[in-house]
Design brief:
heterodimer; A: alpha+beta; Dna Ligase, domain 1; 5-stranded mixed beta sheet; B: mainly alpha; globular; ATP-dep_Glu-Cys_Ligase-2 (chain B); DUF403 domain-containing protein (chain B); DUF403 (chain B); UCP005522 (chain A)
Chain lengths: 470, 318
């Protein structure tokens, strides 16, 4: 039986960040709790935060379960994390600028050329292009797990369009509305500056040809997308337009929005669609979601696209292994956040080890996401493990393996009361003229007892994440 | 404002007005069916109501004979019927979800709650629900929406696009409702002005929840001439064609003021429409033929809608 780090209880003692919550749960009558839970659900449904799960059919208006028990960090803990996250965001951006430029890190032999240039996410179309301020990834979502009081690991980086930030903001709104006393008794750093910070970040990377206050818009694939709520929520908070590909067109070296007063020039696009769909003339010709000719405008400095096309090459699971190396190479610093030890099945020795230790490991697809296409060894049946063994042997390049981490737990409201459940954390780092991080993030919780999979598509829930003020 | 946003706002209002019209038609039908017919049994005008709502063909394909329960289901809960109340409310809510950022929290809340509620209603056994309760419910939803729009929305272009949607849809729907009464319900022209005729007018007034208003405005005997004046020409009657046309004019004017644009073809068109109504007298309508007059009006509203579409909703430079 693995010993999991419990973020609230150390033996019988309450750890300092949770001092303000011990009495709160102890004194909460069961009926009151049920009432509040129902109230929270009603609030979420009314504001329309729902989450459609890909490929499941079912209710398109499903709610992500919200757990009212907050997750808490002290200021000290947070500062450490913050330094590490910002460092990583800088290194990832330096890497992107480099591999679309001279490729020094490859020339120096620190990363194999094959992993970069033959990567599916490497966009030849932007090779040699330097985006405004040299930034490729403007919003970096870094998934972290904790295994001890001072031990955090980076699970993966998200350099393209990390989602979930609307939950961070709404979870807080709802907690403040339902439990104002908690916020009176605990001094909690606010997160509501995020949308403004995001808008400032976007404005700071306006293209060279923009000579006035930049016009910003969020480009969404449309209302059938599972994250549409988030797109419209952010557009609203930022005070920018929410556009679809069909609302935009390209003419005279600029990108224009179709408005009721005629065309309006657009300077910065926060796109929430994949590279492949951005421009049918440059990428997938069958894309109906993009804007024909957009990439030409982008490359000639008529519009900025955030995150820059091609940013995905930095958050690939095979590249992940090399991020600490990037920190050393570009920044000359030691990485403050550790990677999870990773075996790459593409390497012969690693693959042998992985195949011999399948029942203890977590196996992931190199390009997989959302908790799909993975095997959690200790939680799987013999048949599942054998099935995966064949998959790995058939296509070793497609898999990596990691030890099963002893993910920390935090108290969570469950049927029987309060019980520990495993959690992870995704903070959102903004990169523009400066690097910013709002104090908080999205805590995802595996609601099933013993489960280590926190993905919302796999029945995970979310929590409000607090950083205590000093 | 994005053209697509404007278009979505325009259609939210159109769908909600259409849902209301459907439920009013249903109410007319239900009321008529409670009236004993001349010989034995009860009167049935369901066939003609289906025709009026433009859903007769779809219904016949799916159900065959017009049985009241089926018609109620078809007009209210059937997603195969694009004009059913549930289809309209779902689409209005979907449009609202798309332009969530262009409407206020209260407006969204109203539409979203209506959507959640009708999905609850849908699951209840039909035998537990009276048609009149369902129709009341729909009227309440559209009143709520108009109220929240009025009390919470900024008086900007978005507000005008929604109201324009209401005005144009209402103009079209009211004209069709009157046309049903006159063209479809009335078996022969010789019956104009007969007692039978007047009874049907009353049902129509009731369905539009305007019978009180009518009595306040005119008093005395109900005559065809008074009702035609009330439903078509009277600017103080909220559902009259005149009211709808004037409302459309106000909001088209607001838009061009808001955008600092000179008077365009849509403005000229709507002004022409209002002026023509002002110059019209009841006997002239009877002379032209009610059905002909209404058909011409519906056609004019269609033209006007197309002009609004071309001017604001395509994103082309003016």
């Amino acid at each position: 039986m693995t010993d999991y780090f419990n973020e609230m209880f150390d033996g019988g003692k309450v750890r300092p960040p949770y001092n303000g919550l011990d009495g709160w749960t102890r004194e909460m009558p069961a009926e009151f709790r049920a009432m509040k839970q129902a109230e929270a659900e009603a609030l979420f449904r009314r504001i329309g935060i729902t989450f459609a799960v890909y490929g499941e059919g079912g209710d398109p208006d499903r709610l992500i379960p919200f757990d009212m028990f907050p997750r808490v960090f002290t200021q000290m803990e947070w500062r450490k994390l913050e330094r590490g996250i910002k460092q990583r965001a800088r290194a990832l951006n330096a890497f992107l600028l480099d591999v679309y430029g001279r490729g020094e890190i490859v020339r120096a032999g620190r990363i194999p050329a094959r992993l970069v240039y033959q990567n599916d996410a490497y966009e030849r179309a932007v090779s040699g292009f330097v985006p405004p301020r040299g930034i490729y990834s403007h919003i970096v979502g870094i998934d972290l797990v904790r295994t001890g009081p001072d031990q955090f690991y980076v699970l993966e980086d998200n350099c393209r369009t990390p989602s979930g930030v609307s939950y961070m903001l709404e979870n807080r709104e709802i907690m403040m509305r339902m439990f104002p006393n908690l916020f009176r008794e605990n001094r909690i750093e606010p997160v509501d500056g995020y949308a403004d910070a995001l808008r400032r970040t976007m404005a700071s990377v306006a293209p060279a040809k923009c000579d006035a206050e930049p016009t910003i818009a969020i480009l969404t694939p449309g209302h059938f997308n599972s994250a549409y709520y988030e797109h419209s929520f952010l557009a609203d908070l930022m005070g920018v337009e929410l556009v679809e590909g069909a609302d935009l067109f390209v003419e005279g070296g600029f990108c224009w929005m179709r408005t009721t007063e005629g065309p309006k020039k657009l300077d910065v696009i926060y796109r929430r669609i994949d590279d492949a769909f951005l421009d049918p003339l440059c990428f997938r010709p069958d894309s109906m979601l993009g804007v024909p000719g957009l990439m030409d405008v982008y490359r000639s400095g008529g519009v900025t696209i955030c995150s820059a096309p091609g940013a995905g090459v930095a958050d690939d699971k095979a590249i992940y292994t090399y991020v600490p190396e990037m920190v050393r190479f570009y920044l000359g610093e030691e990485p403050l956040l550790e990677n999870v030890p990773t075996w790459q099945c593409a390497k012969k020795d690693d693959c042998k080890y992985v195949l011999e230790h399948l029942p203890e490991l977590v196996i992931k697809e190199v390009h997989g996401s959302g908790g799909y296409g993975m095997l959690v060894g200790p939680k799987s049946t013999k048949e599942q493990i054998e099935a995966f063994r064949h998959k790995i042997i058939d296509d070793p390049d497609n898999y990596i393996a990691q030890p099963t981490l002893a993910l920390s737990t935090t108290p969570t409201f469950v049927e029987e009361g309060v019980a520990p459940r495993h959690v992870d954390l995704r903070p959102y780092c903004l990169v523009g003229d400066k690097i910013e991080l709002v104090p908080g993030g999205l805590t995802r919780v595996a609601l099933t007892e013993g489960s280590l999979v926190v993905n919302s598509s796999q029945g995970g829930g979310v929590k409000d994440t607090w950083v205590l003020a000093e | 404002m994005l053209s697509r946003t404007a278009e979505n706002l325009f259609w939210i209002a159109r769908y909600m007005e259409r849902a209301e019209t459907m439920s009013r038609l249903l109410e007319v039908g239900a009321r008529i069916s409670l009236t004993p017919s001349a010989g034995h049994g009860y009167r049935s005008e369901w066939e003609s109501l289906l025709q009026a709502s433009g859903t007769a063909e779809g219904f016949a394909e799916k159900y065959g004979d017009p049985v009241q329960r089926n018609i109620e289901s078809y007009l209210f809960f059937d997603r195969d019927n694009p004009s059913s109340v549930i289809s309209c409310i779902e689409r209005a809510r979907e449009n609202a979800r798309i332009v969530r950022t262009a409407i206020t929290g209260q407006v969204w809340d109203t539409l979203n709650t209506a959507f959640q509620d009708i999905r609850q209603l849908e699951r209840k056994p039909r035998s537990e629900m009276e048609t009149s309760d369902l129709c009341d419910w729909v009227n309440r939803q559209s009143s709520l929406l108009r109220g929240t729009m009025d009390s919470s929305m900024l008086r900007n272009d978005g507000f005008s696009f929604m109201n324009l949607g209401y005005a144009l849809e209402r103009a079209d729907n009211t004209a069709r409702l009157i046309d049903v009464k006159y063209f479809v319900l009335l078996p022969s022209v010789s019956m104009v002005g007969s007692g039978f005729d007047n009874y049907q007018w009353q049902v129509l007034l009731r369905a539009m929840q305007s019978h009180r208003a009518f009595h306040w405005a005119y008093g005395g005997e109900i005559t065809a001439a008074k009702i035609v004046d009330f439903l078509i020409l009277n600017p103080s009657s909220p559902r009259s064609l005149m009211s709808a046309a004037q409302k459309a004019m106000r909001h088209i004017d607001s838009l061009s003021r808001f955008y600092n644009q000179p008077s365009g073809p849509a403005q000229e068109r709507v002004r022409g429409l209002v002026d023509a109504l002002k110059a019209t007298r009841v006997p002239e309508i009877f002379d032209e033929g009610m059905h002909e007059f209404l058909t011409r009006f519906i056609h004019d509203i269609g033209d006007l809608t197309a002009l609004v579409q071309r001017t604001y909703l395509t994103g082309e430079a003016q």
